[in-house]
Amino acid sequence: MITLEGTYYDGRTPVAVPARMEFADGSAILITGQISLRHAAAALNVSPCIGKADRFIALPDNGQFQCPDHPFLQSLPQASPSEGPVAWLEERWGVALAGIAITACLLLAGYFYGLPVAAERVAAHIPVETEQTLGRHAITWLDEQRWFKPTKLELDRQKSIRDGFDRLRSDLPLKSCYQLEFRASKALGANAFALPGGTIVITDAMVKSANSQEEVLAVLAHEIGHVELRHTMRSLLQNSAVAVVAAAVTADAASLSVAVAGLPVLLAQTKYSREFEAAADEFAFKLLKQKGYSPLAFASLMERLAIKYESDEKMFVYVSTHPVTEKRMKRARAAAQE
């Protein structure tokens, strides 16, 4: 005979009373105080084993008997047919750690390989008109939040740059979508960036950092490359997906709402991958040469900006989102000699 000590719930009141259950000859006898209830052992139902937690035995009369886990309980009818394997897994830390490692590897693989491919395909199917709406919303928000101030560049200087910009975009597939915006910004310093839909912003500080019109156009050609190759939208999709996954994993919806609310700032501070930067560089070099400019202008301006601003960590400047590397400069010089 097997005897288990525990507590009994009658199914009508939430009060537990001390009880014991005796098993013999295929019967289960519940004894509590002066009451003795007999049930067939085959009519019982035992809750799954979860670590060292108590088990519950469901009785035919809707009552429950709660007791510590006991090997004998495995011989009774189980509430879950997979109780054995589940209990085995729960008791082994190695299995849990392996599961965490596999999950982490899958997430990393998805981030580095799956997500970029998915973002590229989704971006290709997003209408340019939708991107333009997002771009207009972003620059309006940045203006309202005073990230920008009106440009102080002379009108003749603006016109000269616009004429060169129009020449750069004249033969491009998205030529009708481009809009060049001049802004002054102490926070962004010498900077230029592309918004979805073809809006390109260049700051007064960037224009003044250039020694020639050709250097300004070299920067604009690089940003045009990001637009034509849909890098801005692809980066936005990838970063948004990361925010969604983070919110799902952490069960923190606030993190998702903050990410969505901060999209204009994210667009202004986009730090493209090395692959995106290299692709935009190559696009810019070909475009510059096609229009009669030398890629050396890009190399000379980038090197000068790096020397001037790279050590200033407080400045959010072009070289912080478009890191200047020797490899990029070599590619620019090589492109000029071809």
Description:
It is a single chain. This protein has 338 residues and is α+β, with helices and mostly antiparallel strands. It has helices at residues 83-90, 93-124, 128-144, 155-169, 204-209, 213-228, 231-250, 253-261, 263-268, 274-290, 296-309, 318-321, 326-337; strands at 2-9, 17-24, 27-32, 35-40, 45-46, 55-58, 64-67, 149-150, 179-184, 192-194, 199-203. Helix 6 crosses helix 10 (274-290), helix 7 (231-250) runs antiparallel to helix 8 (253-261) and helix 11 runs antiparallel to helix 13 (326-337). The chain has three domains: 2-90, PH-domain like (Roll); 92-125; 128-337, no CATH class. It has a seven-stranded antiparallel sheet, with no helix packed on it. A four-stranded mixed sheet has the order 8-9-11-10, sandwiched between helices.
